[in-house]
Amino acid sequence: MFKPLALAAACVIGAASVAGAQTLDRSLSVDAGLGMKYTPEFMGSDKLEAAPWLILKNVDADRGQPDGLSIAPSLNYIGKRDADDTRGLHGLDDIGYAGEIGFKLSWRSGNAVSYGALRKGFGGHHGTVGEVGAKYRFEYNDKLTFWAGGELGLGSSDFTGTYFGVTEGESASSGKRAFNPDGGAYIARATLEARYEFMPDTALMGRVTYGRLLGDAGDSPIVETRSQPSISIGIARRLNFRF
C-alpha cells in the first residue's frame, strides 16, 4: 500500500552504502518559531485563508552540514477541518487536529539534498504519510539564503480516505457521491524558501509553495481545484542538538 516511499527510503540508504558512508550523522539543527500562512481552507479548497504557521524545519540543506547520509526526526501537524465553517464541506464529518511523527533520511552532496520522510499520524488521522524530494541551496550572502525544491507527497489509504474520501453516510447528508480513494502519490509540490538571519541564530523565514493534487486525491468530489498554493512568513530561532 505504501511501496513508493519504502522504495525511495531504500534507494537513499543504498546510495549511502555505495558512497561508502560508515556512520550516520547524529546531530540535528532545527529552525523553530511562529508565523502566519495564507493557505487553502482545506485540502482541495479553491479559497485561501490566513492561519498560524508553526515553523519546525530540519536544517538538512543548510551551510555547515556534512555531506553524506543523515537521519533525523520528522514532525508535522495538520489543522482541524470543521464542516460547518465551509460551504463545500457541509454534510461531511469534522476532522480534528492531527499530529505526525516519524523519521527523515537525507543524502547531501554540496548544496543539493535529496530526502525521504515517513511519519505515522495520530489524532485527526491515523494513516501513514511522507515525502520524497530534493532541494538546492543558494547563498546570497552570510545572512540571506534561498532554497528551491520539489517533492512528491505520499499517503496511505487511511490518510487519503480521511481527507479526500466520502462515506455512504456523508454522501447521504452532503449530496456528494461516495468515494473511497486509494493510497499513493496524492500531491506534487514546488517550493521556494528564504531565510534572513537578522540576529545570531534568529531569522525571518519565508516560503512560497505551489501544490498540485494528483490521482484519486485530485478526483475526489470534495476537491474544488487541484491547484494548492500557499505563502508563509514568520520568525524562527535556530536550535542545535546532538543525540
UniProtKB/TrEMBL annotation:
<comment type="similarity">
    <text>Belongs to the MipA/OmpV family.</text>
</comment>
<keyword id="KW-0998">Cell outer membrane</keyword>
<feature type="signal peptide">
    <location>
        <begin position="1"/>
        <end position="21"/>
    </location>
</feature>
<dbReference type="Pfam" id="PF06629">
    <property type="entry name" value="MipA"/>
</dbReference>
<dbReference type="InterPro" id="IPR010583">
    <property type="entry name" value="MipA"/>
</dbReference>
<keyword id="KW-0472">Membrane</keyword>
<protein>
    <submittedName>
        <fullName>MipA/OmpV family protein</fullName>
    </submittedName>
</protein>
<keyword id="KW-0732">Signal</keyword>
<dbReference type="GO" id="GO:0009279">
    <property type="term" value="C:cell outer membrane"/>
</dbReference>
